[in-house]
Amino acid sequence: MKNGNKTIDWQGVEKDYCAGVMGVREIARWYGISDTAVHKKAKAEGWVRPKQKKTLVGAAPAQAEVPAPASSEPVSPADLADRGRGLAARLMNELDAVTANVGELEEMIHSEESDPRRRQALLKALSLGERANTLRTLSMSLKTLNETAMPEGKKAQRQSAAEKVGGKFSVPSAPKLVVNNR
Fold first, then answer.
1. Quick check: 170 pLDDT over 70?
2. Which of 38, 39, 113, 171 is least surrounded, with the fewest CB atoms within 10 Å of its CB?
3. Computed over its alpha carbons, how large is the radius of gyration of the chain?
4. Would you say 119 and 113 are in contact if contact means Cβ atoms under 8 Å apart?
5. Which residues contact 98 (CB under 8 A, 6 or more apart)?
6. What is the value of pTM for the model shown?
7. pLDDT at residue number 73
8. Phi–psi pair at 56, nearest 5 degrees
9. Gap between the Cα atoms of 73 and 150, Å rounded
10. CA atoms of 107 and 149, how far apart (whole Å)
11. Rounded to 5 degrees, what angle do the CA atoms 67, 71, 76 make?
């Protein structure tokens, strides 16, 4: 279906609507349509959103729960690094979306936010400096995660193999002092 000169991706709208992650207004902005159009299409085609807990106005949104490991065994550093890299990738995607739409976001803030202090805080969060700091922090996190998950080097592998074998390849013990006071 077309909206003016633009084709609307109704399958994408339906997918996002039924996922329940984004609000209807966010979905409408993303696809460049009105939220009324989304509501009408959802009602006409019977789209169902998951039940969401109501929050008080001004209350922080509920945080998504991170599933706990199925067993009581400790999580390996490699698994933690993989989870961290996935999270960093999602945060990079969010940063990319904000950077790509910074002009539109600034216009929305100027037009819809009446409190000057809140407007200034929102604009500061969108500023180039804040986005650069976020990118730097994410990059440092990824570097640390990658270093943590790396296998040990050849020298360290040889050293640990020598310690396991023992004998002349093992780490020599400290010298023993023999004192003879006769």
1. no
2. 171
3. 28
4. yes
5. 105, 126, 131
6. 0.43
7. 64
8. -70, 150
9. 21
10. 42
11. 85
Task: Give the H or E element holding residue 163.
Answer: helix 154-165
Who contacts 61 (Cβ-Cβ below 8 Å, separation ≥6)?
55
Please tell me the distance from the alpha carbon of residue 17 to that of residue 10, in angstroms, as a whole number.
10
Q: Could you give the 3-state DSSP secondary structure of residue 130?
A: helix
Q: In the 8-state DSSP scheme, what is residue 169?
A: G
What local confidence, expressed as pLDDT, does residue 78 receive?
Answer: 73
Structure tokens at 6: 């633009």
pLDDT tens sequence across 63-111: 444 454 455 567 777 777 788 888 888 888 888 888 898 899 899 988 9
How many Cβ atoms sit within 10 Å of the Cβ of residue 2?
7
3-class state of residue 50 by DSSP: coil
